Amino acid sequence: METITKDQGEKMDLIYIVEDESDILELLQMEIGAAGYRTLGFERAQVMLEALQSEAPRLIVLDLMLPDIDGLEVCKRLKANAQYKTIPIMMLTARSDLEDKVKGLEYGADDYITKPFEARELIARIKAVIRR
Ligand code: CA
Q1: pLDDT digit string (tens) for 22-69?
Q2: Separation of 118 CA from ligand 1 center, angstroms?
Q3: By CB neighbour count within 10 A (0-12 exposed, 13-18 middle, 19+ buried), where does 11 fall?
Q4: Residue 118 pLDDT more than 80?
Q5: What tens digit of pLDDT does each residue of 95-116 get?
Q6: C-alpha 9 – ligand 1 centre gap (Å)
Q7: Are 64 and 93 in contact (CB under 8 A)?
Q8: Neighbour order of strands in the sheet with 59-63
Q9: Kind and range of the H or E run holding 59
Q10: Rounded to 5 degrees, what are φ and ψ at 71?
Q11: How many whole angstroms from 116 Cα to the centroid of ligand 1?
């Protein structure tokens, strides 16, 4: 599933959001859209990977627990791809397990945020990663 929530011209950065829980995906699209970004939401990692070929995003918010491909695996694939490795990845995880966070960063995630998240913190982190 893909949903374009905001499209107000070329100047707005595009952010991909991969999250299989539709309520959370909707919330993320709303919050990130309200912060001035265009968003594309995906409930499946495979669909997101295919969409990369049409328009690469400025950043990817990537849920760790996905039904088709594990978030860590997606992260690993993107960071191993010459064309996509520069796209920052913000890992989204419900796991409070330190092991997973460490793994995410080792697999090349640029930052991570734990669910439940504060929208303001998420936006601040997204902006910080994009500025890097
Ligand atoms: Ca999930």
Answers
A1: 999 999 999 999 999 999 999 999 999 999 999 999 999 999 999 999
A2: 17
A3: exposed
A4: yes
A5: 666 777 777 778 889 998 988 8
A6: 31
A7: yes
A8: 3-4, 38-42, 14-18, 59-63, 89-93, 111-114
A9: strand 59-63
A10: -55, -40
A11: 12
